[in-house]
Every structure is written in C-alpha cells, then in structure tokens.
Specification:
mainly beta; 3-stranded antiparallel beta sheet; binds FE2/S2 (inorganic) cluster; about 5% helix; 4-stranded antiparallel beta sheet
C-alpha cells in the first residue's frame, strides 16, 4: 500500500511535475543537460535524469516554488533557495530537500 506509479514519458526537459504522496508534495523535475553537468548531489541517492524530492523546505516546512527562469526553488517563507537537485544554496534551510523512496524504471516512476 502507499505506492504510486507515474508515467514520466510526456515530460519535457526542464519541466517540473508536482505529485501528492502520503499527504506530501513530491517534486519531479526532468533534468536538462546543463542541470546534469552542474549536478550538486550524489546521483546514487537520486537519479541521473530526474530530480525526485519531497517538496517541503527543510527550514520550517513551507512548500518552495520552482522558478524556471533561475532554475531553482525559492521558499517564500524566509527566502531559502535550493538548486535544481534540491540542494540548499542560500538562506536558512539547513540541508537539502529530502529524497523519498522511489525507483525509476525506464520512464516509469514508482514512489513508495
Ligand atoms: Fe523555507 Fe523558512 S520555511 S526558508
């Protein structure tokens, strides 16, 4: 129970999708070539083609907003910033956004 399966094949590079899983927002971002080159996070914990993170700020739990023009997530509560991999780069968040348990098989995401 609690598993969800999502077809990622319609996603474009640089596109963000927000899913709901166990009452939490989950951000799925299809990385661009540039994001892969600038990867700031251990891709073993994540995925080389997609960022999959729990969309809650690690400061006090607000939901950050994806800013496509800057390719980063901004938390409006206290100005926290996270890069495209969900790594905190500015402001009060003490650590990267968490990675949920997931698997990606081809273009199929299984969360949970
Ligand atoms: Fe996000 Fe404070 S809750 S910066």
């Amino acid at each position: 129970a609690g598993f969800i399966t999502v077809d990622l094949s319609p996603m474009q590079e640089g596109e963000l999708k927000t899913l709901q899983w166990r009452g939490k927002p989950i951000f799925v971002l299809k990385k661009t070539a540039e994001m892969k080159k600038n990867e700031n996070r251990d891709v073993v914990a994540g995925n080389k083609n997609y960022t999959v993170i729990i969309g809650l700020c690690t400061h006090l739990g607000c939901i950050p907003t994806w800013v496509p023009a800057k390719k980063e997530f901004l938390c409006a509560c206290h100005g926290g910033v996270f890069d495209a991999s969900g790594v905190n780069t500015f402001g009060p968040p003490p650590r990267p956004m968490d990675i949920p348990p997931f698997k990606i098989d081809g273009e199929k995401l299984v969360l949970g």
